[in-house]
Amino acid sequence: MVLTEEMKDAIEKDNVVFFATATPDGVPNVVPIGFARPIDNNTILIVDNYLNKTRKNLEKNPKASLVVRDASKAPYQFKGTVEIVESGKYFDDAVDWATSVMSQLAPKAAVLLKVEEIYSVQPGPDAGKKVD
Ligand SMILES: Cc1cc2nc3c(=O)[nH]c(=O)nc-3n(C[C@H](O)[C@H](O)[C@H](O)COP(=O)(O)O)c2cc1C
Prior knowledge:
Layout: H1 5-13, E1 17-22, E2 28-33, E3 36-40, E4 43-48, H2 53-60, E5 63-68, E6 76-85, H3 89-101, E7 109-120
Antiparallel strand pairs: 1-2, 1-5, 3-4, 4-7, 5-6, 6-7
The structure holds flavin mononucleotide.
């Protein structure tokens, strides 16, 4: 699954994305996330500053979904599997990014969402259809 330049731009520029997870038995949970940005053509980095239920869900069920707040600019639903890293390059990048914006932040982890499926949420005949 490949994030297009338009998709990456929308994720990068939107101030907030909505990030959904679920417990292993299917209880959904959605949170707003400010620190989310694409790091390559199929991975979105999310900085774990305050994740609580989200983090617990991901540790037991690594599947997640994301939409940008301004979905009129990027009407897509990104779905995939996360890897949580607490050291290494991506963690260091997450810390640098978050602390450069708000020095009091102390990120706990970098959550790497590997995008595996992309669906349209554009109202109309293509709504819900897989685009990649
Ligand atoms: C505008 C906004 C942006 C946020 N950005 C982040 C973020 O980048 N990283 C983070 O860990 N939590 C962020 N939060 C906090 C989470 O949305 C949420 O409070 C936290 O994950 C606890 O909820 P949970 O128990 O459902 O995981 C943000 C909250 C708001 C209101």
